[in-house]
Amino acid sequence: MQENETGILYVVGTPIGNRADLTPRALETLCGAAAIVAEDTRHVQRLLADTTARVERVSLNAHNENERIPRLLERLRAGENLALVSDAGVPAVSDPGGRLVAAAHGAGVAVRAVPGPSAVTAALSVAGLPANRFAFEGFLPTKAEARRTRLRAIAQDPRTVVLFESPRRLKDLLGELAAACGAEREAVVTRELTKRFETNRRGTLGELAEHFAAHPEEQRGEFTLCLAGAPEEPAESGAATVEGEAVLAALLEELSPSRAAKVAARITGQPKNALYQRAMEWSGAE
Known about the structure:
- It is found in: Cytoplasm.
- Its EC number is 2.1.1.198.
- Its main location: cytoplasm.
- Pfam families: RsmI_C, TP_methylase.
- By secondary structure, the chain is α/β, with parallel strands linked by helices.
- It folds into three domains: 8-117, Cobalt-precorrin-4 Transmethylase, domain 1; 120-227, 2-Layer Sandwich (Methyltransferase, Cobalt-precorrin-4 Transmethylase, Domain 2), CATH 3.30.950.10; 237-283, no CATH class.
- It has helices at 24-32, 41-47, 65-77, 97-106, 119-127, 144-156, 170-181, 205-214, 242-251, 257-268, 272-285; strands at 8-12, 35-38, 56-59, 82-84, 110-114, 134-138, 160-165, 186-191, 199-204, 223-227.
């Protein structure tokens, strides 16, 4: 099926806090769509509050996507144009919209981007940390074992890492990162991006943990954290490098220490014995 035989799924970026950041193209796309697909349809009502448009709204979330996606694909195949939005920012990044986009591609439906604000790139732009290479982690797992594994990988990652966190868990996250990465690692905590009370606080993880522990009144709003990457250090002969340890940490999520070390050595060319020793050190530390 050729793309021009179907409708178009528009993936529309929306404001992350300041309604004035909704672009004219985004508004035109939303008003012209047969339906707007959103996790929370109340968000759509706010977006269109200043217009006379009456566009159908369809909720799509983790509880109903198995039922809704096939119906939406039928509408797209029939020639209708649909607009996908998230509660804030760019759809399909840390929200359920990604499955609809993948399904549209699989069905031969045209997918088009209508770019807009993103908390990830907005935070990076004001952090003052290297942004030529970065990793987006979103919200870390809440289960202890999965969380420890992810923290180990982040600690070894040489790229700037971007994370989201809720107000009630921010203090704990800063403490965990300080323990995993070292209290002297630089980071920037951004609160309420693009909103009236936006703040950007930079310091070491130790300093930031102390600050927010002492100022509970600042633990409100939406938080994005940018963490400086692990310093690149020349590896000693026979020792695992930062790259090797990052790969090892990821593999340990699914494999035993011996198997993870073997696969990591094959991928990175690092010494298998050194990688295995590091895996056992991490296991013993837990």
